[in-house]
């Protein structure tokens, strides 16, 4: 790790506590070789735009060697790059360029399951019942008279049963697709395998990891049937609710967390963030207790609507619960698994995570979605703690909601026979230049998912330097956030500046004022630092669904 990135490493000022982290979905960011698939060379070529945005780190969705049955979340080799994206040498070049620009690199680790083509799983199939090789995964005998039925009633997140039977009669567990068998995390050899993977990438110079399905690695002893119950988190599919789920949020996962943390603590200034889809923020906070993850994604905030009371409640609870265990809260509005918030926020009823929006679904009010997304982003980026941005949201990019079935690739679409259209709509290649081939994604015009013509107005080149554009808004917000050290700050509600339908908070001397509905509100005296309302001056009023940052 370059010395210029080892700056705020003292306790309480570590970089990850305040970082703005940008998620790259590699196949959809930039294509350097023109084959229609984004790659590491394309990312390297576009690194300057990310530096210009002002981010602190990049989180990469998986680029490991994979059959690509689930867009790289089915890993066949954790220590190599899939040829679709390049080589380890390409990774090293990209990492060096990012580091030289002051940008850290975070790798997406997928430890809950591997590809069925992983050598360990192939060895398990070949070795037979009762072998050490099979103990690396979750093989079980079936039920029924002759074992012809699955071991229990678990269902896959992608739809259908979570068990597949093999030729010798045993069944293997896959909480996701049948091509993604779950590891047996009760086996110490599995932990040792992944400790080796962690060290491989840490030795290469990465700043840390995002841990996929962090809540799913440990399973309840005996693998009992799922008992239905309700969750308190809105906008989350039934499969992701953790009450009485024997494969979500089990206590045994915390020992795995601690083993991972010990490896990271062998290195200087590294961090890991857990993807822990859990029903309440207090449950999420358990994942970031001392000795476990440094951060976890705040899905309670992601699921929160643009509502004054709900936002205040989730912000208060987040800061209280995460702060109570010595961790920063994180804030996130979009990622590769959820409907982009520029579309999601245009709906009164939030579509459930993983369901997606297709051509037959009621289409969103795009102008409303844009207005609310800009406001939500401005409200979020002023909060203390870490912030995550999903590629394209800095352009105001909406979901591709009219993608035809013939182009879809998400396993969810196929396993549910189109009942759930899945996540392809948020994974479409992003637009760089409106009139270039594939909108600047590459020079050949090829794209693994087709871009809608409507994306042209969101192209980065068309927004760069344009006052009032979403791109310039994000750049300004991130700069002010850094200049005033708001990521390391603290939040104080400032009700004296808020009206009936607005919220106001102060962070390190900056007032963040959000007007939700109803009448316009006057601005207090001070220096207007940033605003979602184009051409606003301090003497004017803030309209509904707008946000202003003011130095008091």
From TrEMBL:
<protein>
    <submittedName>
        <fullName>Glycoside hydrolase family 13 protein</fullName>
    </submittedName>
</protein>
<dbReference type="Pfam" id="PF00128">
    <property type="entry name" value="Alpha-amylase"/>
</dbReference>
<feature type="domain" description="Glycosyl hydrolase family 13 catalytic">
    <location>
        <begin position="23"/>
        <end position="427"/>
    </location>
</feature>
<comment type="similarity">
    <text>Belongs to the glycosyl hydrolase 13 family.</text>
</comment>
<dbReference type="GO" id="GO:0009313">
    <property type="term" value="P:oligosaccharide catabolic process"/>
</dbReference>
<dbReference type="InterPro" id="IPR006047">
    <property type="entry name" value="GH13_cat_dom"/>
</dbReference>
<dbReference type="InterPro" id="IPR017853">
    <property type="entry name" value="GH"/>
</dbReference>
<keyword id="KW-0378">Hydrolase</keyword>
<dbReference type="InterPro" id="IPR045857">
    <property type="entry name" value="O16G_dom_2"/>
</dbReference>
<dbReference type="GO" id="GO:0004556">
    <property type="term" value="F:alpha-amylase activity"/>
</dbReference>
């Amino acid at each position: 790790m370059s010395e210029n990135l080892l700056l705020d490493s003292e306790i309480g000022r570590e970089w990850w506590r305040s970082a703005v982290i940008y998620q790259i979905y590699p196949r959809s960011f930039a294509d350097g070789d023109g084959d229609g698939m984004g790659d590491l060379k394309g990312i390297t070529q576009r690194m300057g735009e990310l530096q210009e945005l002002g981010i602190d780190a990049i989180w990469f969705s998986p680029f490991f060697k994979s059959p690509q049955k689930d867009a790289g979340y089915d890993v066949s080799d954790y220590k190599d790059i899939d040829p679709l994206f390049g080589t380890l040498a390409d990774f090293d070049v990209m990492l060096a360029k990012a580091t030289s620009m002051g940008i850290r690199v975070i790798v997406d680790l997928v430890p809950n399951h591997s590809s069925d083509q992983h050598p360990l799983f192939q060895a398990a199939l070949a070795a037979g019942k009762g072998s050490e090789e099979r103990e690396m995964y979750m093989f079980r005998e079936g039920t029924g008279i002759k074992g012809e039925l699955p071991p229990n009633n678990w269902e896959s997140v992608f739809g259908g049963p979570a068990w597949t039977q093999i030729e010798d009669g045993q069944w293997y567990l896959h909480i996701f697709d049948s091509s993604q068998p779950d590891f047996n995390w009760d086996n110490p050899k599995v932990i040792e395998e992944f400790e080796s993977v962690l060290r491989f990438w840490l030795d290469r110079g990465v700043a840390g990891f995002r841990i996929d399905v962090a809540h799913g690695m440990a399973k309840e002893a005996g693998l009992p049937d799922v008992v239905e119950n309700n969750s308190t988190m809105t906008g989350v599919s039934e499969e992701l609710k953790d009450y009485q789920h024997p494969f979500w949020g089990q206590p045994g996962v915390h020992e795995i967390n601690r083993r991972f943390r010990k490896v990271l603590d062998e290195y200087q200034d590294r961090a890991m963030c857990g993807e822990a889809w859990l029903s309440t923020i207090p449950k999420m906070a358990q994942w970031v207790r001392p000795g476990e993850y440094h951060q976890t994604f705040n899905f309670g905030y992601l699921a929160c609507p643009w509502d004054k009371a709900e936002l205040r409640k989730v912000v208060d609870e987040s800061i209280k619960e995460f702060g109570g265990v010595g961790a920063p809260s994180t804030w996130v509005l979009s990622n590769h698994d959820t409907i982009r918030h520029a579309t999601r926020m245009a709906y009164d009823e939030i579509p459930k995570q993983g369901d997606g929006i297709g051509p037959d679904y009621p289409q969103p009010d795009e102008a409303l979605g844009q207005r609310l997304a800009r406001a939500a982003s401005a409200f979020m980026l002023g909060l203390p703690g870490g912030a995550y941005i999903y590629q394209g949201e800095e352009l105001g990019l909406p979901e591709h909601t009219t993608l035809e079935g013939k182009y879809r690739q998400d396993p969810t679409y196929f396993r549910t026979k189109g009942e759930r259209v899945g996540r392809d709509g948020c994974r479409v290649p992003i637009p760089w230049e409106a009139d270039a081939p594939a909108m600047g994604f590459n020079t050949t015009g090829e794209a693994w998912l087709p871009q809608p013509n409507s994306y042209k107005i969101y192209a980065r080149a068309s927004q760069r330097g344009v006052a009032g554009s979403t791109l310039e808004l994000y750049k300004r917000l991130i700069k002010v956030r850094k200049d005033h050290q708001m990521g390391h700050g603290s939040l104080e509600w400032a009700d004296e500046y808020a009206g009936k339908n607005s919220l106001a908070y102060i962070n390190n001397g900056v007032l963040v004022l959000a007007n939700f509905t109803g009448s316009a509100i006057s601005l207090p005296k001070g220096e207007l630092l940033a605003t979602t309302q184009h051409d606003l001056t301090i003497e004017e009023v803030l309209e509904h669904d707008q946000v202003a940052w003011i130095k008091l």
